[in-house]
């Protein structure tokens, strides 16, 4: 198996292929969000919530823009030759795992468990989850955590390839840029 294809497609495919793939993935993610009633209300967030295609597309666009701008600024600080198209491709293609997460987040099991918790939120001390539901919640949470790690791995590898990042300071800059992108996206989406 070619692990580079899975964890760093940015070094394999041309910028044009990545650009087209990223745009198609972004549109597909918005369709999934509207069809499955899942909201992307932050760079690192997926939640169940009624939404429509335009709202989902807006949220996705804001998330991509926030990642793009913050990583481009960090990239230009690290390497003045950083190209905007490479960072844009990183921002769009890397979101692929989030769309897988959207499908999992919309699962009926998670909806049922979430509704049960919300119905008993005023009496949380007496919350009674079935052992199977608790086990499923744990498994789904672990899978979603792995998906988030995969998303960040793709972002790191795309950033590393785009910027030629090698030093720990470069990756610290990446981490700061990602946190800033998350904060800005939360603010812009909730305006």
Structure described in brief:
This protein has helices at residues 3-7, 15-36, 53-78, 84-93, 96-105, 108-119, 131-163, 168-189; strands spanning 38-42, 45-48. With 191 residues, it is mainly α.
What's the helix-strand series? HHEEHHHHHH
Instruction: Kindly report the oligomeric state of this protein.
Output: single chain
Rounded to the nearest angstrom, the radius of gyration is 18 Å
- Tell me what portion of residues adopts beta-strand conformation: under 5%
Low-confidence stretches: none
Number of strands: 2
Shape: elongated
Can you characterise this structure?
The chain is mainly alpha-helical. It has one domain. The longest helix has 33 residues. It has 8 helices and 2 strands; from the N terminus they run H-H-E-E-H-H-H-H-H-H.
